[in-house]
């Protein structure tokens, strides 16, 4: 198997008794693993190979500590040492080595092991060790946390003053075959924890308290303010830490809930969990009740997850202890507190339509989709065009524009206007499709129809229509035309946000040509006039769709959203009680252009007196300044896109971009303007100043 022979302790002769520290290892849930049906990725032979891989590692480490591998127990080993201290040190190195190995492996290649250690008198008979100490140790290993170590009191008393290890009291445990409960002591599996938080109080203090408690128990906690070093490329470091994390501890205050950087971290953690089964997300609301509204995207990520609340420092020790216990046992938050209404389990998190927050204060934190009735919503000429169009029957509307220009807010207004004229709205936000759906056409088209059925609250008849030998587009079309539209019996608006996520797929032409065919069907089939299509995209589709005659983006009413005009910025300033005078408004426009989100952010900070005018301009490009969260979000998103980083630098320095694909992606991200002749510019002066400095530093 692993090429190493079993050995017996030389200090105990054959037929004699002696003291030894006994170590048992075992694979967590090995019986379930081996009895489970063979999967496409691992069969029984491959699982046994993984067990032998880990046992070989254990044998090598054991040998370096002077231990004896007495025998293999199938999926584990029985080891003995003359020294309790060496036994514990060896077990600790085994778990640390396997944990480091696991961070480099695919989820299906990882096995977790439990280790138990006890000392006592053993007898050497027929090339084996026997006695009550051996029996107790074999029972102790099952009490160890997954990836951890369980010590008996005898071992603990021997090593507690001689080794520096994070040992936790495990209380009394009843072991099979042992008459009295035994006290046990646990060494946790060393977890990696990413702590996501905002730097204001009390978030920062609580984050530091969690960090210190986790480190004291042997875990590796990442705290950006503490662990990022001067000159380090923080976007790459954050991406790496998220990928390696076992747990994602989210300290969610009201301010954090509007943070683009926090949103990016939550999105990355969620998608990593889908792909590699980790990190586990642990949300704690900081002075932000469970029933407080979230923007619909963040809610879709967090609503299926149990959450905790923090309202006072007195709760900190209890919450910290709960998290430490979860990490020790490898669990997640269990149901204890109130939750928002549950989503449909069949299509998780898909049926959420953006809703305005109730009881808004006088000032609104700029974040996500706006309430169409908000006093801060700036209606543009294209709003009138869109609202008039949706009142007609059988229309297609495309809303295009860079990121954070107000596309989703306009979509919300269109949806509301459609409902007012008696239409049913099915809102689908494509950023909620997981990676697995976007990687496989069959799964995507099926899930698309399942999601639509769920939103419309109709009976799911997918299996009936999917049994035909037709292609995915034909199945979808038959399902919509022969079932959903007829069963609904009223006009339907299929409202789709962030459809650019499909542009990266191999089936993009099939999907968008299907939508175009639905648009065309209205000319020949009256039933299809019951269907309106509204599509929102921030990426120009023409570079990514091969046949423009099969594109839904160049038919019907096309609305191109642009940044605010100077007059609209002045109007918005007035709605915020005029924190800027005329000259300062011009300075703001010079800095931000008419960027809707950044203009609203600036005016909110000034009107709420969180920042003085002079400080806003002086600290505009600081990482911790008024726009720091927004700027760091973009830098983080660019971290693994070298072509786009180079392209943005080229635009800033030469006002050109040689690569059309890079141009369209930067334009969709809202970082640069549209071409004017051969000239391309950064979207605003703030971007030019910040990204030239940061990207030049990274390149250097």
Provide mean pLDDT, rounded. Answer: 86
The number of helical segments is: 27
CATH homologous superfamily label of the largest domain: P-loop containing nucleotide triphosphate hydrolases
Question: What name does the CATH topology of the largest domain carry?
Answer: Rossmann fold
For the secondary structure, the number of strands is: 18
Q: Major β-sheet, in short?
A: 8 strands, mixed
Rounded radius of gyration (Å):
30 Å
Structural class: alpha/beta
Set out the fold topology.
Elements: E1 17-27, H1 30-35, H2 44-64, E2 68-72, E3 77-81, H3 84-102, E4 113-125, E5 128-130, H4 132-140, E6 149-152, H5 153-159, E7 168-173, E8 182-187, E9 192-196, H6 203-216, E10 220-222, H7 224-227, H8 234-244, E11 247-252, H9 254-257, H10 260-276, E12 280-286, H11 296-302, E13 308-310, H12 316-329, H13 381-390, E14 396-400, H14 407-420, E15 424-429, H15 435-439, H16 441-455, H17 462-466, H18 472-488, E16 492-497, H19 508-521, E17 531-537, E18 557-560, H20 566-575, H21 582-592, H22 596-607, H23 613-618, H24 628-638, H25 642-654, H26 660-668, H27 685-699
Parallel strand pairs: 4-6, 9-10, 9-11, 11-12, 12-13, 14-17, 14-18, 15-16, 16-17
Antiparallel strand pairs: 1-3, 1-4, 2-3, 4-5, 6-8, 7-8
